[in-house]
Design goal:
Blueprint (H helix, E strand, L loop, with lengths): L2 H30 L5 H19 L83 E5 L8 E4 L5 E4 L7 H10 L4 E6 L5 H4 L2 H7 L1 E7 L7 H12 L4 E3 L13 E7 L14 E6 L2 E5 L5 H9 L8 E3 L11 H7 L3 E4 L12 H9 L4 E3 H4 L2 E5 L4 E3 L53 E3 L5 E2 L15 E3 L8 E2 L6
Helix pairs in contact: 1-2, 5-6
């Protein structure tokens, strides 16, 4: 601190102020005695200039008495603000959690710090407006919110930006809001509606009304549902404009440390609304995530033919694990280290499908499931990825009262135990639509689902609609809208 300079600055200001007062008095006296105002005016001008000079070169902090203006040493960090111990942190990491990285098997897995150490990505690191210093841990936090048979994903970037991808069903708003509020979210810098199905945009209108919104991305697909109309109205009332989500577009996240590329949709017309799904690859450092919405094999083939770089560490399995998504070729191209499935417990669609779970098990990919673990939190430091829960099972779903196929992960052999392994059960094939009664179902040649009404919003753009008895229908996947 330069104390001598501060004293000189103060004296300049003091003398300037005194001269300024003297100049005013001299002008008043000169006018009364009818003398020349030239000299008093000169004194006044010089004094005023001297006073301003003293103020200009004084540190601003000197104006407040008792203020500490010491300069911190380079690299020094201020102590973090205390956070109440009972502050809700969605999907917090237990202290016994072990990091799942690529370290050799001979090396012990690293453990998280004791509970007294703030968890990376917890409330204090998510406060809006927080300025990250070079010493702060820059982590990407992805929260797969448990919204049952629906999708909603919160992404919090290393530089404090918030991205919400889908917003579950209409009834899921309270769950989504609780998660956003607990994570300290006040503004959503990017909102993505992957496609206009109710289980992906159900609560999005409410979210847009409740939070400050930056950009919105949506595919150029529309339905006549009230849910979709509510979304469009909320966007309009907020004075926002949606940007088109299509293959080849880069999302403007406002975070220079990550990239978010849209890889689908790649066509201007689809028979199935699911194939309109925006597929997004998010990269941070050496790690990457692929979010697929409900994209099915038609969209997957298009991405493969476009020669996109699909490889990712974490794959969000398409369409809740439906048999119409995650083809063997697509899974091979992504080659994920981890898979996440957002799926409802005991859902009516048989999700996740036995074929998909078999492929994941055969590839040795750990699966994390919201129906088994609830909300799943995944954190990347740009080098490694860790989860807040243990991997789930490879059990397939049940449909129309059938029993799911149990394909649990193969346990490590216990020392001294018999090496004989239990045979893997034969997967139960996914049944066709319920053949009871005389119900007529509808489908399209290129679609993957059957429908209970030809007026279903997902068929509104279809040119060819076929119909027949359930036993004649070649489709095994029920529509998310009308066959629910």
């Amino acid at each position: 601190m330069r104390q001598g300079g501060i004293i000189i600055d103060a004296l300049l200001g003091l003398f300037g102020l005194a001269g300024f007062v003297y100049g005013i008095l001299a002008i008043i006296l000169a006018k009364r005695s009818n003398k020349s105002l030239k000299l008093p005016g000169l004194i006044l001008a010089l004094s005023f200039a001297l006073f301003l000079t003293g103020l200009a070169i004084s540190p601003k902090d000197n104006l407040a008495s008792g203020t500490d203006i010491s300069i911190a040493e380079p690299g020094a960090k201020s102590a973090p603000e205390a956070v109440p111990g009972n502050a809700p942190i969605p999907g917090s990491f237990p202290s016994s959690y072990t990091e799942r990285d690529n370290a050799p098997a001979s090396e012990p897995a690293a453990t998280l710090a004791p509970e007294s150490t703030p968890i990376p990505g917890s409330i204090e690191s998510q406060t809006p407006g927080l300025v990250f210093s070079p010493e702060d841990p820059k982590e990407l936090r992805v929260t797969f919110i448990d919204v049952g048979q629906a999708d909603s994903i919160l992404i919090q970037t290393p530089q404090g930006k918030n991205i919400l991808m889908d917003a579950g069903n209409t009834a899921d708003y309270s769950v989504i809001k609780a998660c956003l509020d607990a994570a300290g979210v006040r503004r959503l810098d990017v909102v993505v509606a992957t496609h206009p199905h109710e289980d992906h945009i159900g609560s999005m209108a409410s979210v847009i009304k409740a939070y400050d919104i930056g950009k919105i991305y949506m595919p150029k697909a529309a339905t006549t549902t009230k849910t979709f109309e509510n979304l469009l109205m909320a966007i309009k009332e907020k004075g926002l404009k949606a940007s088109e989500a299509k293959g080849g577009i880069t999302i403007e996240t406002g975070d220079s440390l990550i990239t978010a590329e849209i890889l689908a949709p790649n066509s201007s017309d689809y028979d199935d609304m699911n194939d309109w799904s925006a597929v997004i690859k998010l990269s941070y450092g050496k790690t990457s995530f692929l979010f697929t919405g409900d994209a099915e094999d038609v969209s997957e083939k298009e991405m493969l033919s476009k020669k996109y770089d699909l490889k990712a560490d974490v794959l969000k399995i398409g369409h809740h694990g439906s048999s119409s998504s995650t083809t063997a070729e697509f899974l091979s191209a992504v080659s994920p280290k981890y898979a996440v499935i957002s799926v409802g417990k005991d859902n009516d669609y048989g999700h996740p499908a036995a074929g998909v779970m078999n492929r994941l098990k055969k590839a040795g990919i750990p699966v994390y499931r919201t129906d088994e673990s609830g909300t799943i939190v995944c954190v990347s430091d740009g080098e490694t990825i860790r989860f807040n829960v243990s991997p789930g099972s490879y059990t397939s779903g049940r449909q129309s009262g059938t029993s799911g196929t149990s394909i649990t992960p193969t346990p490590s052999p216990t020392p001294g135990a018999s090496s004989k392994q239990t045979p893997t059960p034969v997967p139960t094939p996914t049944p066709s639509p319920d053949t009871s009664g005389d119900r007529i179902v509808y489908w399209t040649p290129g679609g993957k689902s059957y429908h209970y009404t030809k007026d279903c919003s997902t068929l509104s753009r279809s040119k060819t609609i076929l119909s027949g008895k359930p036993s004649e229908c070649p489709k095994s996947d029920p529509c998310d809208i009308c066959a629910r």
